[in-house]
Every structure is written in structure tokens, then in C-alpha cells.
Amino acid sequence: GQQVMQIPQYQHVQEGEDFTTYCNSSTTLSNIQWYKQRPGGHPVFLIQLVKSGEVKKQKRLTFQFGEAKKNSSLHITATQTTDVGTYFCAGQFSGNTPLVFGKGTRLSVIA
Amino acid sequence: NAGVTQTPKFRVLKTGQSMTLLCAQDMNHEYMYWYRQDPGMGLRLIHYSVGEGTTAKGEVPDGYNVSRLKKQNFLLGLESAAPSQTSVYFCASYSQIGSPLHFGNGTRLTVT
Question: DSSP assignment, residue A98?
């Protein structure tokens, strides 16, 4: 079946360092969504990217969608302890198919 | 608005027992999903529904059944629980293709 690969699986950073997680698909995506799950919580929607080459920012978070619409990244500048959690990408392969989640990147921030 | 509500929050079953997990949403969403989440495996789709009266298999449907008799409810059933079904189960809903998923708080199920 269609898959979305996400790396790294884990990332430990010192507070103030930057963090990036990457998602890749072998097939073109119609759109990609990003979610954050705090420890013990449920996934919460962050953003959706639809256009080729799209870049969106939310404060310290920068989201990119590749030109070929096969890859995406989430970059956090100057991490804070509040950024701790697991970040998931979720890709849609065609209009009516369910979202396919990557396995997530668990971020730990050391104060 | 309560959003997406899952019941129960926790459950312990013995192997072979059955149970039903209930997901209710008050947002008039067409689409509803059931996921399971296991360490290192991300969110895997069990079954989903694109509208009242419809259901479809996801990535890991074996051992589960679902029903969507009413638009606001999506039930997940385990007929004969197995230890491999120990997991956290999340229900999610959304209004139309491309809109965000709204997740419930999850059900933590342990099968002994």
C-alpha cells in the first residue's frame, strides 16, 4: 500500500536548538497535513499544505511542501520545552482516499 | 460543542471477551475514522466511514468490525479480543476531503 516515510523516529535537543522532521512519499501527494501529539494526549492539527513548493510559518514553526509534492518538512527554530511531543505528517494520495500517517518523530527537549 | 467523544477511556479485557468502543461527534462530520496507536508504529487506520451507513476497511481491519448507523456515531467492535489488540484507540472525524481531522481523547485497551 501507499506509505509516508517519516524521519527521524526520535530527536533529543537542548532547549534553544533547532529541530527538523522530514516526510517522504514515492507517490505524488494531493496534500499533506501536520499534527502534534503531546505525551498522553491526542493528535492535534497544525497545518495543511496543498501547493507545490508551498511554505507556511506559524511563529517558530516552518512547514514546507516539496516542488514535486512528494516530500515535506517541519522545522522548529529555537526549541522550547513546550515543543515536546510527537509530530506526525499525514499525506493524502488522491481526493477520496484516507489520510496516511507517517510513524511520527518524537521530540524531547532538554532544558 | 464537545467535539469528538470516545467511551470508555480505559478498559481491561480478558482474551476472548468482546467489547464495543463508541465514538460520537457533534460537528455533523461526514467522515469518521478509527485508528490504533502502538509504540513506534504511528497511527494505523482500522476502518473508516465516508457517511452514514457506509464503512470501509483500512490498513489493519482484521479482528475488528464497525458500524455507522447514525451519522454522529461510529462504533468499533472486538468480537474476540486478543493480546495483540492491546493498544490506544483513537477516533477522528472531519467534514470534507482536505479538512483537518478532529481526534477524540482515545481509549486505552489492555487485553490480558
Answer: P
**Interval A12-67: pLDDT, tens:** 999 999 999 999 999 999 999 999 999 999 999 999 999 999 999 999 999 999 99
Report chain A residues whose CB lies below 8 A from the CB of B98. Answer: 30-31, 48, 50, 92
Composition of chain B by helix, strand, coil, percent to 5: 5, 50, 45
pLDDT in tens, B44-100: 999 999 999 999 999 999 999 999 999 999 999 999 999 999 999 999 999 988 899
A89 is written with which cell numbers?
Answer: 505528517
Quick check: B39 pLDDT over 90?
Answer: no
- Taking the C-alpha atoms of residue A35 and residue A47, their distance in angstroms, rounded to an integer, is 7
Give how far Cα A98 sits from Cα of A2, A85, B31, B57, B81, Å.
11, 24, 10, 10, 26
Query: Min CA distance, A87 vs chain B (Å)?
Result: 10
Q: Do B40 and A44 touch (CB under 8 A)?
A: no
Q: Where are the alpha helices (DSSP H) in chain B?
A: none
CA pair distance B28, B40, nearest whole angstrom: 33
Amino acid, res. B2:
A
The length of chain B in residues reads: 112
Element (H, E) at A106: strand A105-110
Give the closest residue to B35 by CA, choosing from A5, A28, A88, A10.
A88
What's the gap in Å between the CA of A5 and the closest CA on chain B?
A: 11
